[in-house]
Design brief:
Blueprint: E1 3-9, E2 18-23, E3 26-30, H1 36-42, E4 50-54, H2 60-63, H3 66-76, E5 80-85, H4 89-97, E6 107-112, E7 121-122, E8 128-134, E9 140-141, H5 153-166, H6 170-176, E10 177-179, E11 185-187, E12 200-201, E13 221-223, H7 255-264, E14 267-273, H8 283-288, H9 295-301, E15 306-308, E16 311-313, E17 327-331, H10 339-348, H11 350-354, E18 357-362, H12 366-369, H13 372-378, E19 385-388, H14 402-414, H15 433-437, H16 441-446, H17 466-470, E20 484-486, E21 497-499, E22 510-512, E23 518-522, E24 528-530, H18 545-554, H19 556-572, E25 578-583, E26 597-603, E27 606-612, H20 616-622, H21 627-636, E28 637-641, H22 652-663, E29 671-674, H23 679-690, E30 695-698, E31 704-710, E32 713-721, E33 729-735, E34 739-743, H24 751-756, E35 762-766, H25 774-779, H26 785-795, E36 799-803, H27 821-827, E37 830-832, E38 837-840, H28 847-861
Parallel strand pairs: 3-4, 4-5, 5-6, 6-13, 17-18, 18-19, 19-22, 20-22, 27-28, 28-29, 29-30, 34-35, 35-36, 36-37
Antiparallel strand pairs: 1-2, 1-23, 2-3, 7-8, 8-9, 8-14, 10-11, 12-13, 14-17, 15-16, 21-24, 23-24, 25-26, 25-38, 26-27, 31-32, 32-33, 33-34
Helix pairs in contact: 19-28, 22-23, 26-27
EC number: 3.1.26.11
InterPro entries: Metallo-B-lactamas, RibonucZ/Hydroxyglut_hydro, RNZ2-like
Cofactor: Zn(2+)
Amino acid sequence: MEVYIQMIGWHKLAIPSSLRLFVNGEFTLINCGENNQRFLNEHKMHIARIKNICFTKISPETIGGLIGLLLTIDNISDNAISIYGPKPIERIINNFTSSFAKIKNLKITIHEISDNNIFPIILKGNVIITPILLNKKNVITTNHETDTIQNSEQTVLDKRKKMNEVSNTHDNELNNLYKNKNGEIGEKKISKETNSNYLKKRKLNVPEIEHEETYESKTEIVNDNSWNGQIEKYKEDINRDSNKIDNTNNNIMNSTEIEKNCSMKQCIFYLIECPQTIGKFHVEKAQKLNIPPGKYYGMLKSGKIVTINNKIINPEDVCDKNIDGKKSLIIDLSDTEYIDYVIGEIKNKEHFYLNNLEYIFHLSDEKILSNKAYKDYFLKLKNIKNIKCNQSNSSLKICPFISSSSLTNILSKLMPNIFLKYKPDDPIYELSPKTLNNYSDEKFSNSFKNTNNDSNYILNVNFKNEKECKNADNSFMNENRIASFEENTNKNNNKKVINSNENKGEYTSYLSYNTLTKFVLHPFHKINICTDEMLTDLYPSTFNFSKISNFTHENDNLMKPIWDFNKKLNDNATMLPSFYFLGTGCSIPSAFRNVSGIILNIQKDFSIILDFGEGSLYQLYWISKSWIQFTESIKSIKVIFISHAHADHHVGIYYFLYIRKMIFPHLDPPLILIPKTLKNWMNLFNELFLDIEMRIIYNENDLEIKEIISEDNLLTLHLFKVNHIKESYGIKIEGKDIGSIVYSADTRPCDNVKKFAKDCNILIHEATFDDELLVEAINKKHSTIHEAMQISLDVNCKTLILTHFSQRYPKAPILNKSSSAEINEIMNKTIYSFDYMCIPLNLTKDLPACFNILLNLLEKLF
């Protein structure tokens, strides 16, 4: 049996800190932040084999990817999954699964860990995860009625023996363990269909929301504790006039809010313990004792005493001593106030925590890791490796999404000002709430002065090298970063495995490794840190660049429109307004395309989001030339439009709002236009994680909103219903600098799109399927490429931008050559969107010819 812990997430703006525990073919996730499912899918890491998800705390950083992951698993599997975490994990899951994220097949069991509901998690092979709860009272809770779990390792061994006697199957082991009222570990006899005591089945009591779609769901959400609170009924009338702005103000603290704040401070650290390695059985010793081969050999190997001819034979008579299993500790503190209590707890129970402890995984923020008391204690522990799993205070050193980055690298070589890619630049200040609160918006804004004097240009800070990036503003630099041990990841370095028996002793700094590093715990003789799969490249390349270079040189005449465009763009600089296309795929993220996400940059300080699927914030970070440009992009967002309640169009917006508040705690909230279906979820998210006065307008047909950009610049937003699901809307945006722009969102061809897009400057239309899949497009209420072009022809738009392609077309959509002269004409006005793409509006007439060449190039090369 193999047991290892693999590093998955390491950076708040890429994949927040998370781990994956592998035990005998099954996986347990520790936290599930944004981009988890995309990363696991890209690297073929078997998300259908995830059996458990354990949360260290409840935060957008830990739960941001949960919705997308559960929906994806639900589409490919009907297995069961168990979720463990502190309050209010049950309330959160109940909320989104009862509104917009319907689970059809997957059975979810929620284990909400609290003071009176703590129990060990037993995995295959008798690997035991012990949760230790830290609550607001600054007291570590492990069930104070008994020291059974923590104080004695022998309890664990006895339990394993007893379990092996009862059954060799994992299912029986898991179902038969519970704690009785006295806190003792015992057995309960229940069938797989029946749950009792802490596993109580009950119907969800959640406010009902009307949907066009109906789901025949066989899923049952099982709640494992006696928490009998119901999802609160929101005081606001759900039928309130949606034209009015929905203000949520939580300035007055009542008893419910105080209790909520206490529960949000809770966090859990996990102790993972492997089983013993059975000592070697010596046949020659057994023969000398006249033990007949067969069942007695097996009994002695399993640690049982046997009697032969009235002679008692102990296992140690024929077997070497068992080797105790290794342990790992996972610590993710939500506040510095817990540091003294965690250290005190470990000191008081050193044998339980530190005996055979191999690794400590530190998922906490920099403010925890740099705390003197914390560092002094953990870094002085001998023979224990302290792994730093949160590297959010540095720039990205690797790219987690190899395929999309490789494609962008090719496209950016051909059109560098259109296809943007990341330039390393350390965050200007620590990405943690308390540090950020020390800086007001005015102080932050002062650091941007003279960065770009022309407000008509996109902020484009081009540093010559990373050192110059880091010196952009030394006044905000964190000079006291923890020294980290960086493993040499040079490709020429052939040493990929670090043996655990080397360099034993006291470490003076945290150990830092890249994502996908494996920390092997079992079997004993294979314990090591394996970096064979570890990612090492910031700009990975999976394509043959020499082949591309040869093609472009041999077809110079074909490439001439692109070279001419690049020269024209360089001569005129990158002008505002422009589009950022962050995600151009549909449904679930793929290797080459993330889910929907578009930003319309109108002025330097005024931008609009048009849908924002999970991972869109990372996409924005990846196309930023500097940390300053990234934060300015966030600050410029004044309006957020969510077209409908499908998860691939809105799940990323919540993490965006969280990071936005973190960086700019005093910035006025943007205007948010969302379907009323999302009301309860948005309210809950604001209550738990933002606590700000929201500006929300619920979408409805023919809703018109006017926003003032400047004294002489008025922006008009006009919403209209489209033919997809209930509460699906498109939007028309009109302004002095942009003309008229129409975004269809997800829809079948419909009259409203034609009505509002008549004679528009730019039509952004979905083109999910190619023309051969018309029937599927009709069934799923999407459009084909040909249908989108026909609409463009009917409305006489100047430029058509196609997006929302099916993930079955990974690199480029399939284009069928039309015999219609009119369609061929519109193809010469069409831009095919890609992720990480910037489109200046004043150059949209020149881009279609370039994109036709790019599509032909990709088709020939790949």
